[in-house]
Design brief:
By secondary structure, this protein is mainly beta. It contains two helices and nine strands. It has helices at 2-19, 145-148; strands at 26-39, 46-58, 61-72, 79-90, 96-107, 112-122, 124-125, 130-139, 150-160. An eight-stranded antiparallel β-barrel has the order 1-2-3-4-5-6-8-9. A hairpin with a 4-residue loop joins β5 (96-107) and β6 (112-122). The chain is elongated, with a radius of gyration of 17 Å. It starts with a helix and ends with a strand.
Length: 161
């Protein structure tokens, strides 16, 4: 009996999750990045916030725009502003997503950079429309791969309307 109930709960959860990734849905999200959970060649402390807004143009496919602010701890890497676009593909009925993006990065002290990136994450629904979205990301620097390319972890919240 326990196995049957658990199977029904899992089936219900997967059906409700996939219903949120339908064409025409709107997405608003925010993420907290860094907290020393990323690595780049120049950073000591890294703390950042990120905002996203997007639209599901097809089932399981999201396009979005994003803006972010990051603070890097070392003196030669200052505060960073970024703006970019991206897309996500949600693997049907389980909330796992694969993402790709491209950002323009502006450092107030020393450089500008264009950084394409990849992301793998999970959209865990805590209510019918609100998610917690942990993800692992990689951003490739065109300016200086060894110093500015970044791999890290971020945790975000999303609202699917």
């Amino acid at each position: 009996m326990k196995k049957t109930i658990m199977l029904l709960v899992a089936l219900f959860a997967s059906i409700t999750a996939s219903a949120q990734f339908e064409q025409g849905k709107k997405y608003v999200g925010a993420s907290l990045t860094g907290l020393d959970l990323n690595y780049s060649g120049i950073g000591d402390l890294s703390l950042g916030v990120e905002a996203k807004a997007g639209y599901m143009f097809a089932d399981d496919l999201l396009v979005f725009g994003e803006a972010a602010y990051n603070h890097q701890g070392k003196s030669d890497a200052g505060d960073l502003l970024s703006a970019g676009v991206g897309a996500r593909y949600y693997i049907t009925q389980n909330g796992i997503f694969l993402g790709a993006n491209c950002k323009f990065i502006h450092d107030f002290h020393s450089y500008n950079d264009i950084m394409p990136g990849l992301e793998v994450g999970y959209a865990y629904f805590i209510s019918r429309t609100v998610t917690v979205e942990p993800s692992i990301y990689y951003q490739q620097s065109f300016k200086n791969h060894s110093d500015y390319s970044t791999i890290g972890f971020k945790i975000g919240f999303g609202i699917y309307l």
